[in-house]
Amino acid sequence: xxxxxxxxxxxxxxxxxxxxxxxxxxxxxxxxxxxxxxxxxxxxxxxxxxxxxxxxxxxxxxxxxxxxxxxxxxxxxxxxxxxxxxxxxxxxxxxxxxxxxxxxxxxxxxxxxxxxxxxxxxxxxxxxxxxxxxxxxxxxxxxxxxxxxxxxxxxxxxxxxxxxxxxxxxxxxxxxxxxxxxxxxxxxxxxxxxxxxxxxxxxxxxxxxxxxxxxxxxxxxxxxxxxxxxxxxxxxxxxxxxxxxxxxxxxxxxxxxxxxxxxxxxxxxxxxxxxxxxxxxxxxxxxxxxxxxxxxxxxxxxxxxxxxxxxxxxxxxxxxxxxxx
Amino acid sequence: xxxxxxxxxxxxxxxxxxxxxxxxxxxxxxxxxxxxxxxxxxxxxxxxxxxxxxxxxxxxxxxxxxxxxxxxxxxxxxxxxxxxxxxxxxxxxxxxxxxxxxxxxxxxxxxxxxxxxxxxxxxxxxxxxxxxxxxxxxxxxxxxxxxxxxxxxxxxxxxxxxxxxxxxxxxxxxxxxxxxxxxxxxxxxxxxxxxxxxxxxxxxxxxxxxxxxxxxxxxxxxxxxxxxxxxxxxxxxxxxxxxxxxxxxxxxxxxxxxxxxxxxxxxxxxxxxxxxxxxxxxxxxxxxxxxxxxxxxxxxxxxxxxxxxxxxxxxxxxxxxxxxx
Amino acid sequence: xxxxxxxxxxxxxxxxxxxxxxxxxxxxxxxxxxxxxxxxxxxxxxxxxxxxxxxxxxxxxxxxxxxxxxxxxxxxxxxxxxxxxxxxxxxxxxxxxxxxxxxxxxxxxxxxxxxxxxxxxxxxxxxxxxxxxxxxxxxxxxxxxxxxxxxxxxxxxxxxxxxxxxxxxxxxxxxxxxxxxxxxxxxxxxxxxxxxxxxxxxxxxxxxxxxxxxxxxxxxxxxxxxxxxxxxxxxxxxxxxxxxxxxxxxxxxxxxxxxxxxxxxxxxxxxxxxxxxxxxxxxxxxxxxxxxxxxxxxxxxxxxxxxxxxxxxxxxxxxxxxxxx
Amino acid sequence: xxxxxxxxxxxxxxxxxxxxxxxxxxxxxxxxxxxxxxxxxxxxxxxxxxxxxxxxxxxxxxxxxxxxxxxxxxxxxxxxxxxxxxxxxxxxxxxxxxxxxxxxxxxxxxxxxxxxxxxxxxxxxxxxxxxxxxxxxxxxxxxxxxxxxxxxxxxxxxxxxxxxxxxxxxxxxxxxxxxxxxxxxxxxxxxxxxxxxxxxxxxxxxxxxxxxxxxxxxxxxxxxxxxxxxxxxxxxxxxxxxxxxxxxxxxxxxxxxxxxxxxxxxxxxxxxxxxxxxxxxxxxxxxxxxxxxxxxxxxxxxxxxxxxxxxxxxxxxxxxxxxxx
Amino acid sequence: xxxxxxxxxxxxxxxxxxxxxxxxxxxxxxxxxxxxxxxxxxxxxxxxxxxxxxxxxxxxxxxxxxxxxxxxxxxxxxxxxxxxxxxxxxxxxxxxxxxxxxxxxxxxxxxxxxxxxxxxxxxxxxxxxxxxxxxxxxxxxxxxxxxxxxxxxxxxxxxxxxxxxxxxxxxxxxxxxxxxxxxxxxxxxxxxxxxxxxxxxxxxxxxxxxxxxxxxxxxxxxxxxxxxxxxxxxxxxxxxxxxxxxxxxxxxxxxxxxxxxxxxxxxxxxxxxxxxxxxxxxxxxxxxxxxxxxxxxxxxxxxxxxxxxxxxxxxxxxxxxxxxx
Lengths: 325, 325, 325, 325, 325
Hints:
Strand order of the largest sheet of chain A: 2-1-3-7-6-5-4
Strand content of chain A: 15-25%
Order of helices and strands of chain A: EEHEHHEEEEHHHHHH
Largest sheet of chain A: 7 strands, mixed
Radius of gyration of chain A: 35 Å
Structural class of chain A: alpha+beta
Helix content of chain A: 55-70%
Number of helices of chain A: 9
Largest interface: A-B, 52 and 42 residues
Oligomer: homopentamer
Shape of chain A: rod-shaped
């Protein structure tokens, strides 16, 4: 079942709420009334009904039914269509979960079509109720409220990435290299970060387009508010840029550290190899079947043992001093 | 043999179909008639005939005969020339197969010249029949139908790449490194992806040029449709961008994983070398031809064997604990 | 407790200083008077009071209360809001410490809101007092003084990075590779450098915006001064660009040097291995239980010892000549 | 000796050819006459003479005498100066051979100054003769003919690079790594490719400048022809871009393959080392001078030999199964 | 002591030279007179005197006293200030030596302030004397002469880098890797190249700005000359771009070659290790204290020696054939 939410305002006053879809045109008949309709996961028929009533463009309706990968605004004769994406970061699974919210905007109404219920509509209504003096600015304010919420979500996502990479930077200088599981997590997080970035950039363009073109929607008193949203997107986009930069630095540093660690291991291994190889040579010498000095004699054994021990200790001390061990 | 397809419309009505090339001018004599002619792999003479009849520019005809590597639109006095490329991905061979479709456009006719039959013309005709109410918008709609089909093909190609790289990302964290055959496949896929990208970018420019300049072709009611096509190309181009980004990430991750694997192998090899080398030293010791304690004695043999075994086990346990084995 | 500083000028003359916030509107009532108010870490109430008195926009006030990550200028109906960041480099900890200074500007007053006392206000007042003949140019000069101070701080920071990387370049060619502590310091410094860069770029835009738009603020005689500030930011931004370039070069050079060093070590290790392995082979030969020439004979021992020694010396000389040792 | 070529046209008709330099002004005296003069490797005096006669700017003459590294167009009061570069690829030596062709253009004459005879002038004359109906368009067509020829040479060069890199891509997956000679060839080819790219890009700008500015030179009927040349340059520039991209991919793939090969070699070496080391340990064991079980006994020898053999075979089979051998 | 040079022209005629600073205003009183003043390393007082006399802006004077890192032009009410940098490459020390030359320009005078005597003023005077017919164009020509000289120095520097990197490219394919000293030289040269690049780019902007804005300075007949200078800077900037590209290619090629060399060394080392290890195994076998076939027998010794020799030779031949040795 599709849940439908409706609201109607005249000036700053909320005059109706929760009325059926059929009543939309009645409300719109009254001059100065602004109507909001929210559909969650509507089917084709229901959307077609609304499209008919409000004369929505067939391409916009098609867009609202299919899934998109990028925010955009399309301008039609009698209305605009805006496709938004609310995001959430699932840190454990290294995933960026997104919900599409499509909107039809006109100076008299705002239709929001959510693809599923992951983006709850209650905070949006609370956002609107918080600034009743701006509701009178019309649909522009309603749209601002929605954008503000979505962009706040981007902010939260960006900070989560920020925290994640702070942790990663900390862990980078630990003793052990990354195992494949961690590598995979990093990999997923990088993909998620790129995806966030790819939501933010067209969103920035869409909002700046709204501010330039749709003066019917963005009235002068609302302008600073859209500017504020725009500024927030800009900050998110700079954060993601900075993080992608940081990721490169991390990759390079990791490489350098790995080289350091491998070098340390190689030195250790080589040192121990030498400590074993030289005594082996000596015992080999004393194993020859020729009458070398001390062969078959007690003092030969003492010499051999002393040599073996002495050289081993000597090598150990030598390598220790050079910090190879 | 060249197959020729023809159609003529007046307003929204299809008034003739399958008439010979010679009848084209007759149809064009009637005001308000729009004619479509399709030639598949035409020879020089046939194209020359048509060029004469419709006064096509010699450079455009030359272009339609030779092969191109990039989509483009050229504007001549009496018509425009557009070169398109339909693509298909052959995942197994890692190849991007493309067919060139050249079009001559004017407000009265649309000529499509296909280099070969790999791009079938039937879906195009079906596409046109699906929106009869738009046929009355003239050649612009016919062109839109063609662009829409070609760009849909780009979409399909991009999704195939998307799926391929999802699989690659999955396989990345497996235990075995890539063998040369897989490397080659990756290499070919990367080249194919770059080629797709290089079709998409000039296509984007071509369509945006059409929307800006040729208002004779793109009428106001058609504008949203071309905008829709443009939006699709944009999405394809963002997908290919994202994929190229992903490829870099995969390359880097692969490098890091390879290092991890090499490191694991090196540790193992070094551990086993130590487990073999130390007993070798001991047996060397007991092989010396000097009267060391226990030489020639049974208890000597017991000590030697115990030492060898004990040290081997000790080393094994030690390396195990440090996760070198 | 919040410290508040105030000043009022008429023309080039300082007419009042240290008056309470309540007196601000009295001063503003006199034509030609310019007022400066500084608040350090104000609470919500105090700012609200001032906002009321001077009719500051609610979004600007909100911005002044929250923390920002990037410099920006917002233009409201009756005033502009500018967010600045003074920076300092902590070389030891590899950190870029920044303090936010928010300003409200109008042709009659300048309000500075410092987030904390890390940016002292005394140098700013001294800067103003140094050029009394320009104070008559109004708020524009006050703003210039502030920008000049902040940008000077950027300069100092950039030079510190410059010195740091000169040192790093020197140390690069030393004998020992970097240990993890140094790597960490480098890593932190790189992050700090990126952060500085990310303050400088939007700052450049903000100042160039001021010069373009706010002619009410930047009067003709002040123009060269703002141009000078702009030029300074440009230089800082080019320095940070050059440094980021240098960092890449350092990373690459470090890699090449590391390879050189590893190669040197590998040659040494291999040489010593050979010097030990060949005598081991010979002693093994003489350890066989077969009547080889010289077995059990004195001259056998002499031959064996001579061979061992000769070959070792030979190998040593050989490797020495090829510069492997 | 300098070879001079001359031609004069009136309308579409060639009215004189091979006349001496002195006759140039006579021909130019007739209205509607267009003159072409070609000098191959002229000396200072000869050029000075011509400069005097046609009032060429001293800077343009200086440019025609010295050598340039980039195509360019300079606009003077009475004429334009264009510097072109014809190129050829020497695949064996990995070199891009270029010849400079400088031109002075005015609506009445075209002077071509070739630095040497490597760019033959006959194809140019044939090119002009092929389209006699366009000669009447004046100097613009002559210039077009020259540009067309030069850009065709770029095309040929780009295709040679294309073929070269196709071969390289094929060879990439062979068994043996590149030896220094091949590396050097690659290196030279990369430099040559970059050089081609650096001719193409300013050439593109120069032609697009001609199309924008010199409407005296590019008449409306000639516009499509210049557009065609422009399009060709664009394709060459996209080819070189794509090739540079491909080169990076090749470098990365080569690195990955090298790692694969090194890994294979390392596994083999390690396996053989183990197959040799373990028997060595056993023979060491049996070489101890202690009465171990079987020492001095026939069955001892059988056991030792069997163990040695068995373990070697076992290890061999083991490594074989894990595909290390 | 500060050396001051002065000159005055009326039209094309040099009317005075070497007059004292005090006489500058006298000369300027005569209409149509153009004055040049050169100060080398002036102190604050001397510059203040001149500033007073010619009404130079305080910020420009401040700039002329401090040191800059980038070329720039600032436009003041009555004059422009231009900061130039003459450069020289010290190939041995891998350093780019630069001298700052600051100029104040107005339609009546040109002041040049050199920071030190490293940029000699005589060539500049000779440059002016070479084109007396252009001196009448006023200060613009004087400025052109200076720019021409400075940019010629850039040219020389760029060619030196060009030659250096040609040598480097040659040496790249030699047998021995780079030692740290050479690495350091490369590193310094890279830094110097970046510094050159960073002088060239803003210089380009400055000259193009002069050509756009200061038509009072650049008269129509001078325009081609400034265009020529601009073109030269463009070529220098393209050369430095190409060189930076080349440096990356060199770094990559060097990496590939290093891998090749390491691989060669590894193969050699492994081969020799095998040639030593297998005989060691055999001698170990014959050293066992068990009655193996031939133990204590002459034919045993013969077999052992033959086996050892045969296998060593076999392995040697084998590795030789596979080109491991």
